[in-house]
Design a protein that fits this description.
single chain, 157 residues, mainly beta, Alpha-Beta Plaits, SH3 type barrels, binds cytidine-5'-triphosphate, binds zinc ion
């Protein structure tokens, strides 16, 4: 992206989540448990033009290098995401997100009868399949409506 096209300032140190599915930036922040309360500077661009994707979202978190395990959940809603680690204004690492085998604590089970929805200390855990997510407790499958089942209190990193 050229400087004339740059909509969100470059960051000095931190993480740039790029090529996020357009419109998903707020869900991405919710999944990562980033709500500004940590005091870090967070900037985001939604529906910005992208050569590769047409439109994309971008999230920049200043002063925090997000780990692979923190960002892998993003693959569920933003499979094309690129994670860039920035130090002293330079991108020092760039990688694609990979689908985890399992996710815990990030999503709630769609089955109202599931023990994870009964106020018990059972952390909702899903096995990641090619075409959905299977609840470890009741076997229910969560397919397209992942963002509708974001847990209120995401797992802390
Ligand atoms: N970026 C930033 N602050 C920096 C360096 C980079 O915010 N100090 C952002 C860029 O704006 C871009 C992303 O991090 O959104 C990746 O930067 P870079 O690798 O330089 O850009 P591209 O080569 O366009 O990336 P890609 O090939 O992944 O599309
Ligand atoms: Zn369940």
């Amino acid at each position: 992206m050229t400087d004339t096209e740059l909509r969100v300032s470059k960051i000095q140190n931190g993480t740039v989540l790029d090529h996020l599915t357009a419109g998903e930036a707020l869900h991405v922040l919710a999944m990562l448990g980033i709500d500004g309360s940590g005091g870090e500077a967070v900037s985001l661009g939604m529906n910005v033009p992208s050569d590769r994707l047409g439109r994309k979202d971008v999230v920049k978190v200043e002063g925090r290098e997000l780990s692979d395990s923190e960002v892998e959940v993003l693959s569920l809603i933003a499979p094309d995401a690129t994670v860039n680690i920035v130090r002293d204004y330079e991108v020092v690492a760039k990688r694609r997100v990979e689908r985890p085998d399992e996710v815990s604590g990030v999503l709630t089970c769609p089955n109202g009868e599931c023990i994870t929805n009964a106020g018990e200390p059972a952390e909702p855990t899903f096995e990641v399949l090619d075409d959905g997510l299977r609840c470890e407790y009741c076997g229910d499958i969560l397919r397209d409506d992942v963002t509708a089942h974001l847990a209120d209190a995401p797992q802390s990193p």
